[in-house]
Design brief:
two-stranded antiparallel sheet
Length: about 350
C-alpha cells in the first residue's frame, strides 16, 4: 500500500514537471501562434503522444455507462477546451513566470470542489496543506506582477481545470491514455478550427511542429501520469502534488526567458514544500465497506483490493484491464481513490 502511494505520488510529481515546462515554452510559441490555435495544437500533440497506448485496455461494456461518458465529456469541455484557451490568453498578456505562479490557484480550486461536490473526504492535514499552497500562491501572485485581466483569465482556467481534475479522478471506464487521447482529439480539433477562423490561418510549419512536440510531452505524457496518480490518490491529494509544476515553469522562465527573480517566491516555495511534506505524512484509516464495483484502472494484486486470479503472474505485477470487486468490509490506511468514495 505504501509503495503504491509513493509510486502514484512520483507519477504526479513527474507530470507536474512536464506540465510546468509548457508555460515558458508556450510563451515563446505565442510570438508566432495565436492562443486559440496554440491550445488546439498542444492538445492534438498530447493526443498524438499517447495514441499508441490508447487502444489497450478498457471495456466496451463499462464505456457504455452514461455517468462515465458525462464525466469524460466534462473533462473534454472544461479541461481540454476552455481551460487551455483561458490560460494562453492570460499568458499572452503577462510574463511566463507570473502565469506559472498564478496556476497555483488550480490546487485550492480542485480541493474545494472535491470536498463540496465530489464526496472527497479531506482530513486536517490535507486542509493544512491546501491552505499553505493557497498562501504560497497569494505570495507568488504578489511577488510576480501580472495584470488584473491576465490574472482573472488564469484564475478562470484554474477553475475549469479544478472541475477537470475531479472528473478525471472518477473516470474508471477508460484508461488514462484513452481519456487523454479523447480529450486531445476532440478539444484540440475544435480549438484548432476556431483558431484558424479567428486568428488568420495556419502558422509556419516549424511553429506547428514545436507546438505538437510540446503538447506530446507536456500535455500527453503529463496527463497520463497525472490521471494514473489521481485515480490512486484522489483529486485533491494528487493536485497538491501537481502544485509543484509552477516552480518548474518559473525556474525555466528565469533561466531561458530572462525574467526577474522575486524574493517572495522563495518564501512561497518554502510554504509549498512544507505543504507537500504535510500531505505525504497524512494517514487515514477506519472500518469501511465496499459495494460491488466494476471498472478499469492500473492495479496490482497485493493491495488488499484486487484478489482476482492471473495464473502464473506475480501479485506485484502492475497491469490494466476491466475487473470486478465483490462486496467487502475491512480496515486499512486509504485515500479517496476510485475504491474509497464512501461518506464520513
Amino acid at each position: 500500500m505504501a509503495s503504491g502511494r509513493a509510486r502514484s505520488a512520483l507519477a504526479c510529481l513527474v507530470a507536474a514537471a512536464l506540465f510546468g515546462a509548457s508555460t515558458p515554452l508556450s510563451k515563446a510559441l505565442l510570438e508566432s501562434v495565436g492562443p486559440v490555435t496554440l491550445a488546439g495544437l498542444l492538445y492534438l500533440g498530447g493526443a498524438a503522444g499517447v495514441l499508441p497506448w490508447a487502444f489497450r485496455g478498457g471495456s466496451r461494456e463499462l464505456r457504455a455507462d452514461r455517468r462515465q461518458r458525462w464525466l469524460l465529456a466534462g473533462a473534454v469541455l472544461l479541461g481540454g477546451g476552455l481551460g487551455p484557451v483561458l490560460m494562453l490568453l492570460g499568458l499572452a498578456a503577462a510574463p511566463a513566470s507570473s502565469v506559472s505562479l498564478w496556476l497555483n490557484l488550480e490546487t485550492p480550486a480542485t480541493t474545494l470542489l472535491a470536498w463540496a461536490l465530489f464526496r472527497e473526504h479531506l482530513d486536517a492535514r490535507t486542509w493544512i496543506a491546501a491552505t499553505l499552497v493557497l498562501a504560497g500562491g497569494i505570495a507568488l501572485a504578489v511577488g510576480g506582477f501580472a495584470g488584473a485581466s491576465a490574472g482573472l483569465l488564469v484564475a478562470l482556467a484554474c477553475v475549469c481545470w479544478g472541475f477537470d481534475n475531479n472528473f478525471t479522478a472518477l473516470v474508471s471506464a477508460f484508461t488514462p491514455a484513452q481519456t487523454t487521447a479523447v480529450k486531445g482529439l476532440v478539444a484540440g480539433t475544435v480549438n484548432l478550427l476556431l483558431g484558424l477562423g479567428l486568428e488568420g490561418g495556419l502558422p509556419a510549419g516549424r511553429s506547428i511542429a514545436l507546438a505538437l512536440a510540446v503538447g506530446a510531452v507536456s500535455y500527453g505524457a503529463s496527463l497520463v501520469l497525472y490521471i494514473s496518480g489521481a485515480q490512486q490518490l484522489g483529486a485533491s491529494r494528487s493536485q497538491l502534488l501537481f502544485a509543484t509544476s509552477p516552480f518548474v515553469g518559473t525556474a525555466l522562465s528565469w533561466a531561458f526567458l530572462g525574467e526577474h527573480i522575486h524574493l517572495v517566491q522563495v518564501l512561497a516555495a518554502t510554504l509549498m514544500a512544507v505543504a507537500l511534506l504535510v500531505l505525504l505524512r497524512a494517514r487515514h484509516a477506519h472500518v469501511h465497506g465496499h459495494e460491488r464495483l466494476a471498472h478499469t484502472h492500473d492495479h496490482r494484486h497485493d493491495d488488499g483490493h484486487h484478489d482476482h486470479d492471473h495464473p502464473g503472474e506475480p501479485q506485484s505485477l502492475r497491469h490494466t484491464h476491466p475487473h470486478v470487486h465483490e462486496p467487502a468490509t475491512h480496515s486499512h490506511p486509504h485515500a479517496p481513490d476510485l475504491h474509497h468514495r464512501h461518506r464520513h
